[in-house]
Amino acid sequence: MATFRELLNQTKASIREVDTAGAEARLGTATFLDVREPDEYSQGTIPGAIHIPRGQLETNIEGRVTDHNAEVVIYCAGGTRSAFAAKTLSELGYTDVVSMAGGFNRWKDEGRAWKVPQTLSAEQRNRYQRHLLLPEVGEEGQLKLLESKVLLLGAGGLGSPAALYLAAAGVGTLGVIDMDVVDASNLQRQVLHNMDRIGDRKVDSAKKTLTLLNPDVNVVTYDTRLGADNVMDIIHGYDVIVDGTDNFPTRYLVNDASLLEEIPVVYGAIFRFEGQVSVFHPYIGPCYRCLLPEPPPAELAPSCAEAGVLGVLPGIIGSLQAMEAIKLLLGLGDSLAGRLMAYDALEASFRTFKVRRDPDCPACSIPKDRIRIAEYDDLCMPHPVEGPAAIA
Ligand SMILES: [Zn+2]
Question: Cα(142) to centroid of ligand 1, in Å?
Fold first, then answer.
């Protein structure tokens, strides 16, 4: 049986070590992996490092470092735990792993860059426990959500479920724009509101519900109509826009403004028993005008108020929008950019269609300085002289 010292020597002989200067030279190219305990990590770490305590290494590493050929620099406090961790990673098939001799203590003593990481409070750790268990989210992802800002256009059928799930997930800032008051006929689908709130401003009702659900969330309300005069100011600074509007003028307005600010829009639409979801990611995928260059004639585009909708349907579509928004915020999986997902409730089927960028799109194929933010009239038709592609 080997003593600890013999085991450590054997381990060190089987791995590669670098000194702190050699590790520093790898900053920017390598993934830095801190394997210390949470209380050590919370007092200071190398900026940009990912943190997996030694005891969770085997279970979590493949979710956090998906490329087995990635360059990985492992460190602990002094270089012992990181040596064992490096051996474990090579046994798991990681090919380019080094352990930093001297560890974080030497790194810090030598005056190299470090910072106190943001960490979750004990209450947050408990609240988001099910997220923390997902290696793809983890503490880092949860902190990212808490720092994220999502703007919800409308606190109605789509905005309600989207807002509830985004707030529950801990998206730190939720903007809500809506100019209506709560009406009893809304409650069949707009689950943010309730009987006590009838007659209240919808944004106020939304803020009450969301804050009660999760006090971590800062709800910013805009009790106004979104128009050409305010759209740029309102959307500025948001990471993702969740579009729960039900009219073409607003969709075109938001599309053009989101291109200018390069903010991805999670689109949702509902009609009777059918719903659609997509992501318009500016200049990466198609935009709304690539999908629909011109609004349909008003008689072919009845609103939800005229056509009716089964109340559960916006719950499903709005929840899908919340999921797409979180994927965008965390850079998870494949977004619906370039795809339109259609749900037919009566058939109980989902179908996905490819949507391509239109090389002649009147909005995303032209230089940004030619995009005009214009007002659209009630007939959903753009004013011809002020269309987005109109140039002098
Ligand atoms: Zn386009």
Answer: 32
CA distances from 110 to 28, 30, 103, 205 (A): 19, 20, 11, 54
Three-state DSSP class for 153?
A: strand
Q: How far is the CA of 295 from the centre of ligand 1 (A)?
A: 14
- How many whole angstroms from 283 Cα to the centroid of ligand 1? 8
Global confidence as pTM: 0.78
CA dihedral over 304, 305, 309, 312, signed as positive or negative: positive
DSSP 321-340: HHHHHHHHHHT-S--SBTEE
The alpha carbon of 284 and the centre of ligand 1 are apart by a number of angstroms equal to 10
pLDDT tens, position by position, for the chain (392 residues)?
889 999 999 999 999 999 999 999 999 999 999 999 989 998 999 999 999 999 999 999 998 899 999 999 999 999 999 999 999 999 999 999 999 999 999 999 999 999 998 889 999 999 999 999 998 999 889 999 999 999 999 999 999 999 999 999 999 999 999 999 999 999 999 999 999 999 999 999 999 999 999 999 999 999 999 999 999 999 999 999 999 998 888 999 999 999 999 999 999 999 999 999 999 999 999 999 999 987 777 666 655 556 789 999 999 999 999 999 999 999 999 999 999 999 999 999 999 999 999 999 999 999 999 998 987 765 444 443 344 443 33
Cα(318) to ligand 1 centroid in Å equals 23
Ligand 1 centroid distance, CA of 371 (Å): 11
Taking the centre of ligand 1 as the mean of its atom positions, its distance from the CA of residue 90, in whole angstroms, is: 46
